[in-house]
Amino acid sequence: MEHGVKLVGETGKALGGIVDSVAEISELVSDIAASAQEQATGLGEVNTAINEMDKTTQQNAAMVEESTAACHTLTNDAEEMTALVRQFDIGTGGIPNSVTSINTQTIPAGGGASPVAAQQKRAATYFAATQGSNALDLEMDSEEDNDWQDF
Predict the structure, then answer these.
(1) What distance in Å separates the CA atoms of residue 34 and residue 37, rounded to the nearest whole number?
(2) DSSP string of the chain?
(3) How far is it, in rounded angstroms, from Cα 35 to Cα 20?
(4) All structural domains of the chain with their residue ranges
(5) What is the pLDDT along the chain (151 residues), one digit of tens a residue?
(6) Rg of the chain over all Cα atoms, to the nearest angstrom
(7) Which contacts qualify for 57-66: CB closer than 8 Å, 24 or more apart?
(8) How far apart are CA 18 and CA 26, in angstroms?
(9) Cα 39 from chain centre
(10) Which are the contacts of 74, defined by CB distance < 8 A and separation ≥ 6?
(11) What CA–CA distance (Å, rounded) separates 3 from 81?
């Protein structure tokens, strides 16, 4: 009987050890589950941030397309306006024709200099050539024309 009691005691100790091990494993599984939940939350936040960046990138790309289209439209409008202004004889004011001529060749999309830079260059060339006033060179034909009064 003593031997049976001793075996029951050892069995109780072994079962106690098993219960402790199961409790430890259960705690580890709970920690793993909590870590997995934290990772899932973190991945969700990263996914949200990436989606927002993608949305912003698409908006920026759309704005670039709109800006490019507006630049092309402004370039074409400026070229049309230049052609209309060329119809007027404003004189060259002593500047050779080669300086006052403006290159209105359009720039192909996606190649060469940017349309904005090309238009700025044409405008700078044009305005440099037309500075001053040809009206200052006019002489009065008679004394009647010089009869200006101050108010």
Answers:
(1) 5
(2) -HHHHHHHHHHHHHHHHHHHHHHHHHHHHHHHHHHHHHHHHHHHHHHHHHHHHHHHHHHHHHHHHHHHHHHHHHHHHHHHHHHHHTTS----TT--HHHH----PPPPTTSSS-HHHHHHHHHHHHHHHT-S-GGGG---SSTGGG-----
(3) 23
(4) 2-132
(5) 888 888 888 899 999 999 999 999 999 999 999 999 999 999 999 999 999 999 999 999 999 999 999 999 999 999 999 988 888 876 665 555 544 444 545 445 555 567 777 777 777 776 665 555 544 444 445 555 555 566 5
(6) 43
(7) none
(8) 12
(9) 33
(10) 115, 119
(11) 115
Structure tokens at 117: 């830079």
Taken as a whole, the chain contains a residue count of 151
